[in-house]
Amino acid sequence: MPTWLTLNEPKTVVDVGYRYGAHAPGLRDDNQAYIAAHHLLLAHGLAVQALRATGSKARIGPALNLSPAYPNPSDDAAAQAAAKLADGYENRLYLDPVLKGAYPTDVLADIAKRSSMPAAIHDGDLAIIGTRIDILAIQYYNPVYVSASGDYNTILPTTDASWQQIYPDGLYDILTRLRHDYGDIPITITENGRPSADVIGADGKVDDQERITFLRDHFTAAHRAIAYGVKLESYHVWSLLDNFEWAEGYGQRWGIVYVDYASQTRTEKASAHWYKEVIARGGL
């Protein structure tokens, strides 16, 4: 059955495009950021309704990048409170209106300190945003660790993307949390992967063992989530090819296939051969 995804990573648009200015439209304006967040979600709901109005039997839902938020240190009450609010911004701000038809009250109250976004919510908007979806696409790259001050901390090894802390169990945590908090919704993982400083060796091969380890550990976490009862239907590696990666351009290589950008020659990395074997045997 065909599947349509309405939005790709609205949180990235809001945070990186409107708050930090690294992506288009290049703003640093919290007020505009959260107004944009609401209108992105409203556009999602309208897209769901428009598809349904055609009589199409296709499935539809958003693609949300989610990050579990953990307190650092975990036994500090203030850090726990900060992590809960961080979870609101990282996850609930997008999940709750889509799946529950309401914004999380703690996040909405905090946003009101910095943005006129609450006033931009018109009667009927949340009913539109909360129009029933058929599938939820999620993209998982990393957790966040939050101190009592609300600052994000790096406490785990990172990849060539300095923001990406490696924590496969975070995928298990976010998948099982979705089932626990939002019900038995069909889920697809539309992105999961890591960049590496890949080079072609003298033997003509690209030996990206760290990517194999990363993918194996995340597959294992996903399998545990399925065993828990999560209705995880499919999984997609990011990415098939080395590509032009947002504001990073060609500076990071995420693919399981190496691309020589000058000649466009493509070389399967060790991870691509490994992944083929996993697919052929139906598991690790």
Structure characterization notes:
By secondary structure, the chain is α/β, with parallel strands linked by helices. The protein has one domain (3-9, 56-281): Alpha-Beta Barrel (TIM Barrel), CATH 3.20.20. Helices cover 41% and strands 14% of the residues. It has eight helices and ten strands. The protein has helices at residues 10-19, 30-53, 77-100, 105-111, 125-129, 169-182, 209-228, 270-281, and strands at residues 3-8, 59-65, 69-71, 136-139, 144-146, 152-153, 187-191, 232-235, 257-259, 266-268. Strands 1-2-4-7-8 form a five-stranded parallel β-sheet. Strand 5 (144-146) and strand 6 (152-153) form a beta hairpin. Helix 6 packs parallel to helix 7 (209-228). It is globular. The relative contact order is 0.11. The model has no long low-confidence stretch (mean pLDDT 97).
